[in-house]
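Batch manifest line 554
LIGAND: arginine
JOB: complex structure
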Amino acid sequence: MDYRKIISEAIGDPLVTPADITTAAEGHGDYALPCFKYARELRKSPQAIASDFAARLGKHPAIERTEVAGGYLNFYLDRRTRAEEALKDVRERAVLAGIRGRNAGKTVCLDYSSINIAKPFHIGHLMSTAIGGSLYRIYKHLGWNAVGINHLGDWGTQFGKLLAAYDLWGDKTKKLTLNDMLELYVRFTDESEKDPALAERGRHEFLRIERGEPDAVATYELFKRTTLEEVDKVYARLGIVFDSYNGEAFYNDKMAPIVEELKAKGLTEVSDGALIVRLDDYGMPPCLITRSDGASLYATRDLAAADYRARTYHFNKCLYVVATQQNLHFRQLFKVLELMGREWAKDLVHVQFGMVSYEGKPLSTRHGHVVFLADVIENTVAKAREIIEEKNPDLPDKAEVAESVGVGAVMFFALGTQRVKDVDFNYDRVLSFDGETAPYLQYTHARCRSVLAKAEEGGEYDPALLTDDESYAVVKMLEGYNDAVTDAAEKYEPSIVARYLIDLAQAFNRFYIAGRIITEDKALTAARLALTRSVADVLKEGLSLLLIKAPDRM
Ligand code: ARG
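JOB STATUS: finished
ARTIFACT:
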């Protein structure tokens, strides 16, 4: 129900639009119409205008009464109607159906996770993976056609080095792991500092990959396969999916036309042998298109990738969920595409996020402080298991619940804070049952389910029994669910859903503490159970949009 619209229609004056209606100040009803801005036109005091509107107000079942206070006309809505509508909507999803209808046929491309082959999947990648994975679900939920893309970092001279290292020192009798590749790469870097011939060998091997020599390509493919096998395990655990793994290598044969077009449009310049697009007019350093040795660059691949996505998916929006550090890269990329005349360049968005530290320490590969995401998940799940063992030792399927709680804690860590902010991962904090955490939300959900399991719940209830302050606060929260999800999609901000769920859970817990749900009074019990059911359903669905499972018991 759109109460702003209902109120403005009830006033029935062309001067008043739904956007003029604001939420009322604490203790002054539900909504308010500030009348100051009409004073000049109507040549009356705001207070007199508010009184006029009040006197002329048509009767509407959703509006219980009004009150003139200063220049404001305050509206008290009918709590009974509001409860009935909110619960009905959770059940019937008419509002969602409307939203989905409006979004039908729209496509969003999401570039997220986008890991680098033969490099560790560390906790720093968590943010892109979680934010992108969550937005993917949110957009699908709202009726969009979503395309999840893992733009793999699977091209570059480092693969020549790795290949050389593997030939020299790799143990070909046993199965290669991600860790082996890391060790080989580090050893190669160390030894080639002392031995220049080694560096040369690395370059030569990369050339062989580029030329497509079968044995070199086979080993390169082995590196790729090995990395993907390991990261896919992490993705499966987190519930992350992709529709495409087309990464940098995929664009090898798709860059030449772009480079030609840039030249033909007179956008390029040769500088120290390199081909660049000058962006001085836009306050940016030049965008490098090809190096002096002719090798293509990250930006060139991204130009080709954007073009390919536009051609292949006809997107309405294309999101890049990548750390703030790459802000300049994306600004340059979007600008060059605009200069090339791609009218869809305006639909490209860099969804950036801040830095992650781990237990107070910065994460930096260069200084050897690498924290593997798989280990973090493993530890969090183990700790969740300990907590469950202590709190609820008789719980059936403890392992499964611990998995949901542990993974959920990690996900909420990544999604619970506004994405531009820096965040620090701390086990005690993410696993706390009473902070703003996943376990708190999961626990509240399980609390609802356990109440519902204890009582027979009928479909019929009297919404007039949900008009006390605590119930009403829950009703109002339920009403805001679709808006929160829509807002999260529009702002590319899953934390809006997270914030919403915390507020809903807190409102529910106040309701839970204020009075018993299951009482002798059958009618009251039925009404409270209906409210509880709605909260449980919204919590469960909302959590799933954040890639978090909601066990029935914990
Ligand atoms: N692989 C890159 C990195 O780890 C991220 C790629 C992001 N996506 C893109 N289209 N540039 O830094």
